[in-house]
Amino acid sequence: WAPRIEYVAGERIGGGLASDGMGELSKLLLGVEPARALRLARDTGALVQILPELEPAIGFDQESRYHELPLDEHLVAVVQATANADAPLQVRLAALLHDAGKPESAWRGKDGRLHFYANPTLGKRSHEELGADLASTALARLRYPTRLRAAVRKLVREHMFDIPARALPVRARRFLSRHGEVAAFDLVAHKDADLRGKRVAESEQTRAELVRLARFREALEQERTGAYRLKDLAVDGSDLIELGWTPSPALGRALAQLLHQVIGNPELNTRARLLAEAERLLARAG
Questions:
Q1: I need a surface site. Which of 158, 204, 227, 253 has the fewest CB within 10 A?
Q2: What is the pLDDT of residues 247-282, one digit of tens each?
């Protein structure tokens, strides 16, 4: 019966008849035991009918010291971990699709192992870049709302971020500035699930990474009310125009430079200090 799924409207499966993202796939992912449902869908052929992008992942051996599971089982385990953590829908969709690009991106190194990062010499894109494209294609076909598609694409594209171990406050502010508050915490939630879905039994290395990730999440919580956006600066564009800046891309770059300095040292976020720095930048530009 799986082939008959092709006759079902994408909205009913994915985006929802009310365009709210709450089609049958979303309801499955938001359930208590999505892993059980996903395995059933995989074994009956329904999963590949809904998401042909995942067909190469079925039974794919990652040949990795970091992954004990076939790729499809890893994806299922990560989705279940997001459910256990009560993560939002965009994180669960990203969990299902985040490594979809691995089979196509795979190349064998001199160490004899498969690798999934970009290799321009071989014409290979990174698995996260390929995965982001595959996720966009799949979610568009299933008529998911544009904003949700964009959120999932970002999570897939950025999920390989390194977990910082030092200088957590400034790195948390940089992370928030780059991704925005919602996506920053979604990325951490996804990373947590990704780590938990790598092995059958949790290793010491995984436990150490989870501890480091928890510390980074705490830093994000502490810094989320700090200054990491342009609107958080003690000055704005009109203040710089009064100094002699003209409305132009250069003014935007000056504000970005001020923000960069404030992210590095929040004590600089005073009107007097920022105006003085803006005046210095203007003199140098002239």
A1: 204
A2: 999 999 999 999 999 999 999 999 999 999 999 999
> What is the pTM assigned to this prediction?
0.93
Q: Amino acid identity, residue 204?
A: E
